[in-house]
Amino acid sequence: MTGVNSFQVSGYGPERAGWTRLFARDSLARRLDWPILLAATALSLIGSLLVFSATRNRTELNQGDQYYFLVRHLLNTGIGLALMVGTVWLGHRTLRTAVPILYGLSVFLILLVLTPLGSTINGAHSWIKLPGGFSLQPSEFVKVTIILGMAMLLATRVDAGDKQYPDHRTVVQALGLAAVPMLIVMLMPDLGSVMVMVVIVLGVLLASGASNRWVFGLIGAGTMGAIAVWQLGVLDDYQIARFAAFANPSLDPAGVGYNTNQARIAIGSGGLSGAGLFHGSQTTGQFVPEQQTDFVFTVAGEELGFVGGGLIILLLGVILWRACRIARETTELYGTIVAAGIVAWFAFQSFENIGMTLGIMPVTGLPLPFVSYGGSSMFAVWVAVGLLQSIRVQRPMSA
Predict the structure, then answer these.
(1) pLDDT tens-digit profile of 9-34?
(2) Could you point out which of 43, 64, 116, 147 has its C-alpha 20 to 30 Å from the C-alpha of 185?
(3) How far is CA 128 from CA 112, 117, 170, 184, 325, in A?
(4) For residues 6 and 288, is the Cβ–Cβ distance under 8 A?
């Protein structure tokens, strides 16, 4: 065994690491990307304070318990951490073999949304009601399965050494795999999630080394598709109104433009250091709707000011930076594609969420990763962190 790394002997790699070696020298603990883990944990804890501030006085939401959303947000974070650990334990390579099962399950779940089991929350028919007052948003997990599924197809022959880049046939298969759940999600309609998935697909294709003609072709097809969706009336009235309010901020400030106007007032009033946690007049006065979910960044802007909002953006930037590094340093195309897909997902969703509170992006109902209240979103982003960690710990020690 001389010269063989003790971590490799432990059986990690394609299989799983023994829990007894968790904190051994040169083992899992040493290989974890701690900046990502610490930044994601910090964001979730900051989010818990912001969610608490936004909901502690809203008796119509918290059922008379000011700690209702705080406890559930912390519980969601704990479950998310457990899912991350489970993902690292299984390994992204093991999950690669389970992609057909995961993909089939995710498609089945989003199809259930279109049945009587589906429910509408805040205008979006994207949820499945569960016993005990819980809800599940399957489209959050579809983001993960699209990344894994496309990565599996695009990298199979390249990682095997048969080809240098994915061929056109493989790209078509990967696009078909992504198109099925995206079309179903569009039927809900959940435009925000579809936008994220489109960006994920573009990021995955760029990372895979596929011909740039595919990327430019998809951008053109997406533009024409968006025009067709608008003309054919696929979007609900409230979604059309949101885009109209984005194009003309002065349109109906007491109606469709209310959310954005109040969000900008809240953030603008925060100044450099903010009014202080739990002391924001817009937040305390409950002027900003859905402040614990879609508009949670307004709490940071008002109560923690530019410093607090900047800290959230900085922590998100740390995650993106380290994820890009993981994508660059891994020796297998499959890991590179998965990491790049996650980067595209986190980057666009964060920009869209923060952008819509500032009025520079349309309101789409996307949560801020790790910060917004919501179990499905929290679970999905922590699974993604687990995938990033798995890619890092399963690379050769010399990388």
Answers:
(1) 334 444 444 444 444 545 677 788 99
(2) 43
(3) 7, 6, 33, 15, 36
(4) no
Q: Give the pLDDT confidence of 51-76 residue by residue, as tens digits.
A: 999 999 887 787 778 899 999 999 99
| Cα atoms in the 13 Å half-sphere on the side-chain side of 314 | 9
- For 41, 113, 117, 384, 387, the CA distances from 136, given in Å and listed in that order, are 22, 10, 11, 18, 21
Alpha helices in the chain, H assignment, sequence order:
6-9, 28-31, 34-55, 59-62, 68-90, 92-97, 99-113, 138-159, 168-187, 191-208, 212-232, 237-247, 258-270, 281-284, 296-299, 305-329, 333-358, 375-393
257 phi/psi in degrees, rounded to 5? -90, 5
Cβ(340)–Cβ(204) below 8 Å: yes
pLDDT in tens, 135-160: 889 999 999 999 999 999 999 888 77
Residue written as token pair 């979007």: 235
